[in-house]
UniProtKB/TrEMBL annotation, chain A:
The chain crosses the membrane at residues 6-24, 60-82, 102-129, 150-169, 207-225. The keyword Lyase does not apply. This is (Fe-S)-binding protein. Residues 295-326, 359-391 form the 4Fe-4S ferredoxin-type domain. One of its GO terms (cellular component) is plasma membrane. It comes from Sinomicrobium pectinilyticum. GO terms for molecular function: 4 iron, 4 sulfur cluster binding; metal ion binding; oxidoreductase activity.
Automatic annotation (TrEMBL), chain B:
This is (Fe-S)-binding protein. The keyword Transmembrane does not apply. Keywords: 4Fe-4S, Iron, Iron-sulfur, Metal-binding, Oxidoreductase. GO terms for molecular function: 4 iron, 4 sulfur cluster binding; metal ion binding; oxidoreductase activity. Residues 18-104, 144-231 form the Cysteine-rich domain.
């Protein structure tokens, strides 16, 4: 009967992996709803960016306090996961600390895990204080009410509990404590349990062990529903990010074709379309819903950490306008999830008479943007909220002719006089004689 | 003021060293026209053979594009590219970061590839080639803060050329709390210049002006005609016109020696 725990462990582990894989596949399917965009160029540069920004956390340290704490938690996350490997092997095969044959090296390993665990614990507590007691401005915007706020805190509680469990597990492991090697932190906690009978210690140790690993597996499956997806997606997201100068806005190809046709004196606008072109529906200009966005923009939405660095640098947001680039990303993700669920339930997308525009993102938000790129620059994981804003403006103007009246005046002026003001193009050089 | 057009140059069978793209603001806005003239004086002083398109120039289409009207933008672009290519233009200098960005980044894929420089980059290259000299003159010792235009700074990574020029004036260059990559917008970009701002509790240009005032500078230096307008309005709304002036980098250099 000694194998029963191993069987239970295997079942839990494989269930966790099963659900995780299912979520990842759903994620990929949803991202694929987006339009194609080519980001296959310049691979070395892309790898460099990913290494610097995702792995190297380059943009995090722009704000040193949060940045350094974040690096600790991130390193802790990665390094302590090496320990998870041992736990999994132990769990599956009923061994105990299988790697301990490594001797001195094992001690060094566990010792550093323990130190990191303590540092993570401290950092996470500081994070919690910043969110809930100091109440930093950027965590208090309207879009941070409800789930996003709780999500942020859940994760912190999760990490606190996991770190405590890890340390307790080590502290109550009698044979490990007797080794007197590697128990740098747990050795300090161990006296708390002194005097307890060996059997009780064993029960505490086993409970901590089980809760710790089950906690990690639950965490793995919580990711999909959380802003914490960024720990995985930060990598592809920085890799596939735009490499062009930030000022370059793409030229819509569909428009180029039409403009060329209009400008070409030999073209016959009423000519029958060439063979095979007939069935192509007229292309929709701009974006009103998630399916009009490209897949990188959708990947952006899933990657967003809701940190609000974009919003706190945004001139519109800083001056009390409704626009918040973080909200643009959160709305995009929420709508994409809604569309995904619709597909789950119906097999294919069934019109729900909703769209990203108006049901999520209002026009007032879109028109408040100055296209200053501060949000793009600030984002620690290379998200581009501006591209979504501008694509949605394209829809408003080209599909709905719904620009603010003053902008329509400006555009009429450009059309008629070649300048955004009502001056005659023939007067363009008058300044030289004034 | 002697400002040759491309048409005139062509008639004489000459090709200028550089085309000066004046832009809509530089052509029509009273404040921006002064910047245009300052730049012309500097080009003359450095013996740069330049020309303008004059009445053949038309809006690059930037505000239309940022407002979402890709059609109008591309119509403008294609028209301008036709003119530029017909004159076989190779190199363009402009005092407007919006024109700069559009010409440099958005025209190539529509068939218009040129070497495009912002006037601060061009002036700096003239300085380095020894064709232009800069002296402190009447600004010597003044405190100057430089406002980064979004379309020059973040959009195209140009932070140092304007600062290098300002330093040459023997002045004290002071930075605002938010500068360079973290610079705060003046509020004009993305076609905001042409509309009333959305509801909020402050105007962006006022916020930015307050940051500039914090530096206790005598002059706010700008590199964009739209930033110039926004900052000038900001200073007015704070009633600080008597304490702080807003000037383009080209004006600073030209006025330093009373050109
Ligand atoms: S580009 Fe638009 S959304 Fe982004 S920071 Fe600037 S104003 Fe805000
Ligand atoms: S877009 Fe980037 S900066 Fe903005 S909240 Fe998301 S992760 Fe943070």
């Amino acid at each position: 009967m000694a194998v029963i725990p191993n069987i239970i462990f295997a079942v839990i582990l494989f269930a966790a992996i099963f659900f995780f894989v299912r979520n990842v596949r759903k994620l990929i399917r949803n991202i694929r709803i987006g339009k194609d965009v080519d980001r296959s160029d310049n691979k070395p540069e892309r790898f460099r960016k990913m290494a610097r920004i995702a792995l190297g956390q380059q943009k995090m340290v722009v704000r040193p306090v949060a940045g350094i704490l974040h690096i600790i938690v991130y390193l802790g996350f990665i390094i302590i996961n090496i320990e998870v490997l041992e736990i999994i092997i132990d769990g599956l095969f009923g061994t105990h600390r299988i790697f301990s044959f490594l001797g001195g090296f094992y001690a060094v390993l566990i010792g550093s895990f323990e130190v990191l665990a303590l540092l993570v614990l401290v950092s996470v507590i500081v994070f919690w204080v910043r969110r809930n007691i100091i109440r930093l401005q950027r965590f208090r915007k309207p879009e941070m009410k409800g789930w996003p706020k709780n999500d942020g805190n859940f994760i912190l509680y999760f990490e606190m509990i996991l770190m405590v469990l890890f340390l307790v597990m080590n502290a109550t492991d009698v044979s490990f404590q007797q080794m007197q090697a590697g128990n740098v932190v747990s050795g300090l906690i161990a006296p708390l349990f002194e005097g307890l009978p060996g059997s009780t210690l064993h029960i505490i140790e086993r409970s901590a062990w089980w809760l710790h690993i089950v906690g990690i597996l639950v965490f793995l499956n919580y990711l999909y529903y959380s802003k914490h997806l960024h720990i995985l997606l930060a990598f592809p997201n920085t890799y596939f990010a735009n490499l062009n100068p930030k000022g370059r806005m793409d030229n819509l190809e569909a428009v180029t074709k039409e403009v060329k046709l209009m400008m070409d004196p030999n073209a016959d606008p009423f000519a029958a379309p060439a063979e095979g072109e007939e069935s192509a529906p007229p292309e929709k200009f701009g974006v009103s819903d998630v399916a009009d966005l490209n897949w990188v923009q959708l990947l952006n939405a899933y990657t967003c950490t809701e940190c609000g660095r974009c919003t706190s640098e945004c001139p519109a947001s800083q001056t009390g306008k409704k626009l918040s680039p973080r909200k643009i990303m959160m709305d995009t993700r929420d709508r994409l999830e809604e569309v995904g669920k619709n597909i789950d339930n119906n097999g294919t997308f069934v019109e729900d008479n909703k769209s990203l525009l108006d049901n999520y993102i209002t026009r007032e938000e879109l028109w408040a943007c100055t296209s200053c790129n501060a949000c793009v620059e600030a984002c620690p994981v290379s998200i581009d909220p501006l591209s979504i804003i501008l694509d949605m403006r394209r829809y408003l103007v080209m599909e709905q002719s719904a620009a603010p009246a003053e902008l329509n005046n400006m555009m009429t002026n450009i059309e008629n006089n070649g300048a955004p003001w009502p001056y005659n193009q023939m007067d363009r050089l008058n300044w030289k004689n004034e | 003021m002697k400002v040759p057009t491309m048409a005139e140059m062509m008639a004489e069978g000459k090709q200028p060293e550089v085309l000066f793209w004046v832009g809509c603001a530089g052509s029509f806005d009273d404040r921006a026209k002064k910047i245009t003239k300052a730049l012309v004086k500097l080009l003359d002083k450095a013996n740069v053979e330049f020309a303008v398109l004059g009445t053949e120039e038309s809006c690059t289409g930037d505000p239309a594009k940022r407002a979402g009207n890709e059609f109008l933008f591309q119509m403008q672009a294609v028209t301008n590219i036709e003119v530029l290519n017909a004159y076989e233009i190779k190199k363009i200098v402009t005092a407007c970061p919006h024109c700069f960005n559009t010409l440099k980044n958005e025209y190539p894929s529509l068939g218009g590839s040129y070497e495009v420089m912002h006037h601060t980059q061009f002036l700096k290259s003239l300085l380095e080639e020894g064709r232009l000299s800069i002296e402190g003159g009447k600004f010597k010792g003044k405190r100057i803060t430089y406002h980064d235009p979004c379309y020059l700074g973040r959009a195209n990574g140009i932070y140092e050329a304007p600062r290098d020029l300002i330093r040459k004036l023997d002045v004290e260059l002071v930075e605002m709390r938010k500068c360079k990559k973290a610079g705060l917008c003046c509020g004009a970009g993305g076609a905001q210049m042409f509309k009333e701002p959305e509801k909020g509790d402050k105007d962006v240009n006022v916020e930015r002006t307050e940051q500039a005032l914090e530096t206790r500078a005598d002059i706010i230096a700008a590199g964009c005609p739209f930033c110039n307008t926004m900052m000038t309005d900001g200073v007015k709304s704070k009633e600080k016109e008597s304490e702080i002036a807003v000037m383009d980098v080209a004006e600073l250099i030209a006025n330093a020696e009373d050109l």
